[in-house]
Amino acid sequence: MKTKNLANLWKESELGKRAMVAIFKTVGCAWRKCTMCNYASESYHGKINDNVIYSQLEEALSHYEGEEIVKLYTSGSFLDEREIPLSARRKIFESFEDAEKIVIESRPEFITKENLADILDFSDVIEVAIGLETVSDDVRLKAINKGFTLKDFEKSIAILKEHGFGIRTYILLKPPFLYEKEAIEDAVKSVKYAKEFSDVVSINPMNVQKNTLVEKMFKDGEYDPPWFWSLIEVIKRTEGAVISKPAGAGSVRGIHNCGRCDSEIMNALADYNNTLRRNLFDEIYCECRDLWEEYLEMEILTGSYGMPDIRRQNPKF
Fold first, then answer.
1. Sheet strands side by side (includes 17-23)
2. pTM of the full structure
3. DSSP label of 30
4. Contact 178, 140 (CB under 8 A)
5. Mean pLDDT, the chain, as a whole number?
6. Strands 101-105 and 126-133
7. Residue 41: what pLDDT?
8. Where in the chain do CATH 3.30.750 domains reside?
């Protein structure tokens, strides 16, 4: 949808519910050092105040049609008062009082008892999403440069659980400096860990964003986004409410296969995100699956974190 004040807004469905996603334009993430992220480019250039937020809230409300799930994102941390002033938080949540669930995102450092004090009465509705990305501190700190440890994450989870907030955990599929085969194992292990305390686990396959280290590696032929077959493998090896809504899916910068089977898989994935029926992927076949199996070994044998030419031989790319 075209937006005037918001960074973006769209409608989707999830776990059988209708959802509205509104991206507020704020000053952006306070960290801004992750190797794969350039969401800070969507930042609001100027000082954030209540009026700036309220104009975006009004636009979001003008598109709201009673969706059961409302996702209010900022390309940063909703709980960072530099992005969303404390004085505006309650008004935002009150504005969507009919929603069954309101999803927000935050880094762990903003999830404190003091910072949640004014919205505790919304805890039964709010689900806080955190980008853990991986259970491995080495991968999160060295490959992704996320800036927090598993201990930091677990501390924030304990606070959310103590006060009855819902929890959503993001897991990144194929961080830089991991072979695809390693990335699959890392994602499976991370999802199984996160499922122990999360209401929803969302797998985010890598999407190559502009002006990032990952983009430089991508252009140099040292990184290639994951295959759909890898995502399917992770989903099949995990249980429960594990979903995935990849950005840039089917494009050369996002998760993709050979180009011939991508649409079929994306349709199956959309259905899966509503039903959690993992057998939806059982009947999908493409010759590139054999190529993917070879790719898993070839990456390691050649010592390359990406072999882009293998898939880009298809005319689509």
1. 8-14, 17-23, 69-73, 101-105, 126-133, 166-173, 200-205, 242-243
2. 0.95
3. S
4. no
5. 93
6. parallel
7. 67
8. 1-105
Give the contacts of 219 (CB within 8 A, at least 6 positions apart): none
99-136 burial: b if 16+ Cβ within 10 Å, else e: bebbbbbbbbbbbeeebbeebeebbebbbbbbbbbbbb
Residue carrying structure tokens 């103590």: 162
| 129: β partners | 105, 168
CA 27 to chain centre: 20
- Closest by CA position to 311, among listed 207, 241, 227: 227
Spatial distance between the Cα atoms of 228 and 190, rounded to a whole number of angstroms: 18
**The pLDDT of residue 165 is above 80:** yes
Residue 38 scores a pLDDT above 60 = yes
- In which residue are the tokens 């909703």 written? 78
Rounded to whole angstroms, the Cα distance separating 52 from 46 reads 10
pLDDT in tens, 116-153: 999 999 999 999 999 999 999 999 999 999 999 999 99
**In angstroms, what CA-CA distances link 317 with 247, 250, 292, 308?**
17, 10, 17, 11
Q: Smallest Cα–Cα separation from 128: which of 89, 72, 196?
A: 72
Residue 48, CB half-sphere, CA atoms under 13 Å: how many? 22
CA gap 273, 49 in Å, rounded? 36
How far is CA 177 from each of CA 40, 136, 262, 295, rounded to the nearest angstrom?
23, 13, 25, 16
Question: Residue holding tokens 């686990």?
Answer: 201
Fold of 1-105: Transcription Regulator spoIIAA (3.30.750)
- Kindly tell me if the per-residue pLDDT of 104 is higher than 90: yes
Place of tokens 């927000």: 104
pLDDT of residue 69: 98
Q: Are 111 and 83 in contact (CB under 8 A)?
A: no
At residue 308, the pLDDT reads 59
> CB-based burial of residue 51 (10 Å sphere; 0-12 exposed, 13-18 middle, 19+ buried)?
exposed
Give the list of residues 6+ apart from residue 177 with CB closer than 8 angstroms, or none: 139, 142, 143, 305
